[in-house]
User: Which sequence fits this backbone?
């Protein structure tokens, strides 16, 4: 399981139909609530689906592969 914070921006295996593929994490838990940064639509995905679909996470001003993402304080 990877490490996320509320407010993190991630990209998924597939983007939103609006053409954007940047999502802000609004809630985390058994289900994750994500907001599309293109159109503002909010969706719920199960944690398991999220883990399978997430590809990159924004660190500073660039996206890095999720497999390289680690908590900042470890
Ligand atoms: Zn969208």
Assistant:
């Amino acid at each position: 399981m990877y490490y996320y914070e509320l407010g993190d921006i991630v990209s998924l295996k597939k983007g939103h139909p609006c053409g954007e593929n940047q999502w802000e994490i609004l809630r985390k838990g058994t289900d994750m609530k994500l907001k599309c940064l293109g159109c503002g639509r909010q969706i719920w995905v199960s944690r398991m689906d999220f883990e399978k679909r997430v590809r990159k996470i924004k660190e500073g001003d660039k996206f890095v592969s999720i497999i390289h993402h680690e908590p900042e304080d470890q």
